[in-house]
Design goal:
CATH class: Mainly Alpha
Number of domains: 1
Shape: globular
CATH topology: Growth Hormone, Chain: A
Amino acid sequence: MAAPAPMSNASFIPPPPGDAFGHPTALWQLVHSEFWERFAYYGMRALLAIYVATTFFGLLPEGDAKAEAALTYGAYTALIYATGIFGGFIADRFIGYRRAIVIGGLFMAAGLFLLLIKDLQWFLLGLSLIVVGNGLFKPNISTMVGRLYAPDDARRDSGFTWFYMGINAGGALAPLICGTLIGAYFGYEWGFFAAGIGMLLGLVAFQWRIARMGVIGQPPAGGESFSRVLLVTLGALVAVPLVYALLSQKSLVGYLLIGLFLVLTVYFVAAGIRSRDRVQLHRYIAMLLLFLAKILFWGMFEQAGSSLNFFAKDHVDAPFDFTVFQSANPIFIILLAPVFAWLWPRLEARGVNPSIPRKFGIAVILVAIGFTTLVWAIGALQDANARIPWEMLALAYMINTMGELCLSPIGLSMVSKLAAARDTGLAMGAWFLCTAIGNFAAGAVAALAAGGGAAAGIQQYADIYTQIAVAGFGFGAAFLLFAPLINKLMHGVK
């Protein structure tokens, strides 16, 4: 099959007529579907590290149990995002985004229901199904959002921001329902069950009035047959035991992720050279450099589900269950995303809007400030029980969230604009691979922070968080310094 030409306004096929709140009606359907998918993911994510530590490693010393749980969490969340590469490629080339999303959602629901079984082997099998399913679901629904807009449509960034708010609305609600209301009273395994119900609701939302999408997400030419769907489903089933093996041997995950990133680096550079388009080559180089900032950012930020979860449980004085803090980040996203969506156009009108590379550097520095806040609170505000006021952890989450808003929604839009049309799904998968590498690194860091157990106490968290902050300030400043060069390579993409 010949490679399609990069998408232009002339080749763009819009969704069926009909707008709501200034955007294609189909956008809100995708937002609704992603809301429930993220409800499923964040509902089980809020419980995962604590559940694994107490249920499967409870006989180990406290520090060892937390370290094993943190590494399991890091490997699982890393693979969650890494498989997006394959899911994006499969959708681009073989079955289309719609079919990939449905297959992926069914795999994820099945995996979540398996987590009800209190056996480590069955639990890892459930996680493996979720990983494979998420790879088919996550990058492709994001790609469909980008396909709703013509390349030069000024609404694109705003559309992705609304999409990102939908993600976080699901993320905000899920820990409260799955963790605080269900898990804390009936057992965390029933929190996983509630997450599975959420996943099924996401599939219903996606299929409901699917005609609103028009041709968006349909299989590529020649890929309409059901046989391809069957082959992809069988391939996904074969992938499950491979993922299971990686979760059982967590150290292998890091090598796999680095290998995948190097392969993708070679692929995008080669694709740019083959295109004989100097601008496209430069854009791919810029995209890869921005990917490095994403890896660093997420390695710092994703302490949220691991070490910060243990920290909240053991060292934060709060009048509510510690699982509530897992809703802090998405709640701040919902509150602050409209502010940032309003801010960027206003700064642009005044000629002072930071470029995308500068926004990425600012994001890394903000997370460093968030961890600095925690280190200060540990030194100045801890009580006799080695606990700090809950407001300080909430403040750290708010600052980290401000960093996320400088990077994640902008990054989604950036990928859809820098990548050639043929490689959009793969590039979106690579974006999530960077999240995967960051997650794996975050798990290793969390194992150091929480691995000392009661003997090490709160000071071990302070030491590790200090190191995170120093690295963030250093790399963030370096990225700001080189931002003009990266911006030049983007050739006008904003």
